[in-house]
Amino acid sequence: NALADAARRKALIVLEDSLAQALPETEGLIEKYFSAHAGKLHLVRPPLFVSGGESAKNSSTLVSSLHAHIQHHHLDRHSYLVAIGGGALLDVAGFAAATAHRGIRLVRIPTTTLAQADSGVGVKNGLNAFGQKNFIGTFMPPFAVINDFNLLASLTPRDKRGGYVEAIKVACIRDVNFFNELERTADQLATFEPAAMIHLIRRCAELHLEHIAT
Questions:
Q1: ∠195-200-204 over CA atoms, to 5°?
Q2: Extended strands (E) in the chain
Q3: pTM of the full predicted structure?
Q4: Beta carbons of 72 and 39 less than 8 angstroms apart
């Protein structure tokens, strides 16, 4: 009925194509989730597959595309834009969410070590322009951030290590005990031992959140 339809929240999902290639079952799992929660959520179309990486931030093409989908499917401030990918994709999707209807609900699902530890839990969104990184941008807290550590298994060793330097930097600035822990677990981190990686990501994210909040 009309009341039930009004209570359902619309969602648009944008998914980094490299993740879709590494985990081809992802699209089916997303659609299965929304089908199971059809009384509360409405997936307005199949997930959008887009290229990630820094090149995604070098033009407004993706932002314009997301704005067009938001308008076409009549998403509003109670709707959700769900971004699944690395930090660059989250930046662009976040900018689109922040600037449509002066802000629709953004859900970030970061898929890299760096994004889970740093940018995915922050409040910044941005595009590169005029040869400058993040020249155009907004500050908008995400509605939710979901760090699924299982997603990291699909990364290359280089990308798994990608967030380590950020954690070391934050530890040097803010938490000597965290830095000492990173030194003690260096061998486990070098071999991507899951418990050591999870602790690095969780503590780095906590320190970022503390900085933002206080």
A1: 150
A2: 9-16, 41-43, 48-50, 80-85, 105-110, 124-129, 132-139, 144-145
A3: 0.93
A4: no
Closest CA to 42 of 91, 79, 8, 87: 8
pLDDT digits (tens, 9 = 90+) for 92-136: 999 999 999 999 999 999 999 999 999 899 999 999 999 999 999
For residue 66, the one-letter residue type is L
Classified as helix, coil or strand, 134 is: strand
Two tokens, residue 198? 């999870």
Q: How far apart are the first and last CA of the chain?
A: 45
Under a CB-based contact definition with an 8 Å cutoff, are residues 140 and 100 in contact? no
8 Å CB contact between 140 and 176: no
Among 44-48, 54-58, 62-66, 89-93, the minimum mean pLDDT is found in 54-58
**DSSP category for residue 71:** H
**For residue 213, is pLDDT > 90?**
no
The Cα 204–Cα 121 span in angstroms is 10
Helix (H, G, I), strand (E, B) or coil at 145: strand
Tell me the per-residue pLDDT of 173-206, one tens digit each, with 9 for 90 and over: 999 999 999 999 999 999 999 999 999 999 999 9
What 128-131 contacts at long range (C-beta under 8 Å, 24+ apart), as own/partner pairs, is: 128/54, 128/57, 128/58
